[in-house]
Design brief:
The chain has 7 helices and 5 strands; from the N terminus they run βααβααβααββα.
């Protein structure tokens, strides 16, 4: 089964139903719900999603949505080791370095899905946009 690391923007697209991007986020999460792929994200992504969406979605509802999302995505803890490696990395964007390091922490991670492909140029794992991932996995 494919292991896919989901960047924050994909989770935000899903929960906020940001068109036209949400279509692909929905497709990806549906495949996880059907146990056809395994999704991963960082604890940072969950916290950032909450921070970004709390202005638009009522707190109780947002917490419920995020809680239910955990049924379909495994959360990788951002710990001191990942933070230290991120701070020492040559990657220009610290946040993206954290995401990559979380993805690297899972054996045989197949890919990262993000709408910010250019920010993951130096990644050691394949990186796809949501529409590319959907097409590559023949959804």
């Amino acid at each position: 089964m494919k292991k896919v690391f989901v960047d924050t923007n994909i989770i935000v697209d899903l929960i906020a139903d940001r068109k036209p991007f949400s279509k692909f986020a929905i497709d990806i999460f549906c495949k996880a719900e059907e146990n056809k792929i395994n999704l991963y994200t960082s604890s940072h992504s969950i916290a950032t999603t909450h921070y970004l969406l709390k202005k638009y979605i009522e707190e109780k509802e947002l917490r419920s949505v995020l809680y239910n999302l955990l049924d379909f995505v495994q959360v990788i803890q951002v710990d001191a080791d990942i933070i230290k490696k991120g701070l020492k990395s040559k990657h220009k964007d610290f946040e993206d370095a954290i995401q990559m390091l979380c993805a690297y922490s899972i054996d045989n991670m197949d890919c990262i899905v993000t709408r910010n492909i250019k920010d993951f140029r130096d990644c050691e794992i394949l990186v796809f946009s949501p529409d590319e991932l959907v097409n590559k996995l023949n959804f």
